[in-house]
DNA sequence: GCATAAACTTGCATTCACTGCATATTTTCA
DNA sequence: TGAAAATATGCAGTGAATGCAAGTTTATGC
């Protein structure tokens, strides 16, 4: 099976790597096009293989499962130095810093806009895939919750002082991801025209409004 | 196939209904016990069927999928009148009202505590099941977001005034569910000893602390 | 009570996702 | 170029899931 099946195409890369990327892309394209045409459930792995000219075995070498060919590939975690900067960050607002970090990472997206949009459409019209996607996002949230915990610790907050510190971290992440979802939606709906700054500003306003105008129990 | 396969056992109910409930429970028990012993992936549907004395076909009549036998059964939505009360509610805090409504519903849980705990343990040690469970929770969140929207509308807030009203609703729900998760965790960890009031108070304090001490971007 | 309908269970055959293993085929690199 | 490493493929098998056409059990009207 391939050594690293998920690396994106690098221009001046070795032949092997470029072929790998091409195969990967061909399978994805075929999968998504077929599913948009016939519906996810009516597409078999064999159909995808035939359309993309690979054997079924190769398909499963690239994507461990049928769903794998349809979901976004990259792990979407920020590079380690960015994470470190966040953890050691002196910014007064965890929300602001976290939001900025995530926005910088996530909005990077696939170079291939057309494929990205096709996949987005497909996922959002296929409950099965949508659930998987949500699960993926959930895992990402867990990772970010870990970063927030690290930041708390770095700033001297411990479970000794605050027993439910981890819950606090999770809630912060949940809220920021809510805002992210909002951003992504607007971005997709608006045909990807807004700048990152505009989106961040809008989302930020939303969080502020919600939390400011509330009476707490 | 059974007419309504998911109804819980009613004491003075017809023989048929009681048998249905018994079969359902037997399958669940067998499934969870087997998985706790051998691991989810090493348990086949046939093994469950043999242990619970039903045919494979019957298994799939009851639970549409293998996973179905392991996940919590009920939809866990509050009864319509409670929902209506929430929507028309005059309470000044959506958070407080929503939290109270959810707490009242969710903490109801299965009559069978032992089975509940066994399932909980199994799910949290099986990534596959955990993802499914999260997806289920996600769907529930969607439903509640709908209720919050209805409440907004009822109180005269419209998308015309606030274009991102739905995002606001989703974030409210996300936050409250974060608190709920916290509550559930404490409840399970503490061997189900705390009263509902204690839990609600703790979660409420958590939300308050998080949002009060923040500087917003 | 009993016959008949309705609800429920089962067996069987089939499709499809997925895996392990052995065997080509291609790419790399000394 | 020729051996080694990386990929691709074929094949056989497992297990989940579904439709259909019987059986079997429970409910109901008389």
Describe the model.
Two copies of one chain form a homodimer. The first copy, chain A, folds into two domains: 55 residues, Homeodomain-like (Arc Repressor Mutant, subunit A, Orthogonal Bundle); 133 residues, Orthogonal Bundle (Tetracycline Repressor, domain 2), CATH 1.10.357. Chain A contains nine helices and no strands. In chain A, 65% of the residues lie in helices and 0% in strands. At the A-B interface, helix 5, helix 7, helix 8 and helix 9 of A face helix 5, helix 7, helix 8 and helix 9 of B. The structure holds a DNA duplex (30 and 30 nucleotides). Chains A, B: It holds the Pfam family TetR_N. Chains A, B: This is TetR family transcriptional regulator. Chains A, B: GO terms for molecular function: DNA-binding transcription factor activity; transcription cis-regulatory region binding.
Short description:
With 217 residues, chain A is mainly alpha-helical.
Topology readout:
The structure is a homodimer of 217-residue chains.
Chain A: H1 15-38, H2 45-52, H3 56-62, H4 80-87, H5 94-106, H6 113-124, H7 127-154, H8 165-189, H9 196-212
Helix pairs in contact in A: 1-2, 1-6, 5-8, 7-8, 8-9
Chain A binds a DNA duplex (30 and 30 nucleotides) through helix 1 and helix 3.
GO molecular function, one term (chains A, B): transcription cis-regulatory region binding
Protein name (chains A, B): TetR family transcriptional regulator
Organism (chains A, B): Arthrobacter wenxiniae
